[in-house]
Design a protein that fits this description.
It is a single chain. The protein has about 350 residues and is an alpha+beta fold. It is built from eight helices and nine strands. Helix 1 packs parallel to helix 2 and helix 1 packs parallel to helix 7.
């Protein structure tokens, strides 16, 4: 229940005064990183984060039947509604590296055939949900984001310790953020199909605010362990989907206390209960042909590919609107590839042959 002493309002954003300059700085640093890697011989030009994908798969996103009225919002407004989903699994690092090295893991869901007005004008019928296998983000605000990127560049692939320990004054050390960072990058993962993912950042759900999560079915768990193969996460997906489907629950949690569950600080975990609003089913399939992998490489995901009812909230998401668009535009330019959202027909032409 919302505290009467709270000065913050549920679902309300509180932008800081210097946000625009921070967003510009982060955008510039991100694009420079892509261009430098490209000039150094990396082909194709890759994302500045989540550069290595394990593959994209075709799935079905099924809205729960008999949802309560308060949960019939946006893509969830029609109980039992089914959407085709294009799901990209990835490592979070901006530099592709062996899967056995520490990294966070990502899951990006693109629903195809979503009608209605959208927040961005470059797409008409898609809705994206972006998730990582950690419940909280490791940066409190956009100025920290800038300092982190600078420290990360200087660290040249190593732990950006300068960001977490910026000087001799221990009161300025970022212990909370360091703990989150180490936890996120040291999780043992056997397969992308066997772990839980979280949005980390908040979103609108009609006139309320939520975070969301995707939790694997118990039937997804295989008992396999991580291996020393550089691409073992893709190999685990191939083995699983060769003969067996994978299922996930799509869950939401409401912001119920604006102080304890803030919009602007995504390093704070929300404690409200989760509710299931949809099922994500991934049938047996082949997804690793050269054509399918190239299709996956050229896709763009952003939380701003969304209905207004699911508008991203908070500083990190406000920054993502400009940064993700600029990164996508630049890497597509460097790769000489058109930038467009997939339709049902072009997605099905590559991913429509499922295994019985």
């Amino acid at each position: 229940m919302q505290s009467q002493k709270s000065k913050l309002e549920l679902g309300k954003e509180y932008p800081s005064a210097n946000e625009e300059s921070a967003i510009q700085a982060i955008t510039q640093i991100s694009i420079q990183q892509i261009e430098q890697n490209y000039q150094a011989g990396e082909r194709p030009a890759r994302r500045d984060a989540h550069a290595k994908h394990h593959g994209c798969v075709r799935g079905e996103f099924i809205v729960e039947a008999n949802l309560p009225e308060e949960m019939k919002v946006g893509v969830f407004k029609d109980s039992g509604k089914k959407f085709t989903a294009c799901i990209r699994f990835s490592n979070s690092s901006g530099n592709p590296k062996p899967d056995y090295q520490g990294d966070a893991r990502g899951m990006a869901i693109k629903l195809i055939g979503v009608e209605g007005e959208k927040l961005l004008i470059d797409e008409l019928r898609t809705q994206d949900f972006i998730l990582v296998n950690n419940s909280v983000f490791s940066l409190r605000n956009l100025q920290d984001y800038v300092e982190f990127f600078v420290a990360l560049t200087e660290a040249k692939g190593n732990l950006p310790l300068k960001f977490f320990v910026p000087g001799y004054n221990p009161f300025k050390w970022r212990w909370h953020e360091l703990k989150i960072f180490i936890s996120a990058f040291n999780k043992k993962v056997a397969s992308p199909l066997e772990i839980q993912y979280w949005s980390m950042t908040p979103y609108k759900f009609g006139d309320r605010a939520i975070k969301f999560s995707v939790k694997p079915s118990a039937d997804n768990i295989s008992g396999r362990t991580a291996s020393r193969s550089p691409n073992y996460l893709r190999e685990a997906m191939i083995e699983h989907l060769n003969s067996k489907e994978a299922c996930f629950d799509f869950l939401i949690q409401f912001q119920t206390d604006a102080e304890q569950m803030p919009i602007e600080d995504s390093t704070i975990e929300w404690t409200s209960p989760f509710y299931k609003v949809a099922t994500l089913k991934i049938p047996p399939q082949t997804f690793d042909s050269p054509e399918q992998m190239e299709f996956c490489e050229n896709l763009s995901y952003t939380p701003w590919h969304a209905l207004p009812e699911h508008q991203p909230l908070g500083a990190t998401n406000r920054a993502r609107k400009q940064i993700y668009t600029a990164i996508s535009q630049r890497r597509h330019e460097l790769n000489g590839v058109s930038r467009q959202e997939p339709t049902e027909s072009d997605f099905s032409s590559l991913f429509g042959h499922l295994k019985g």
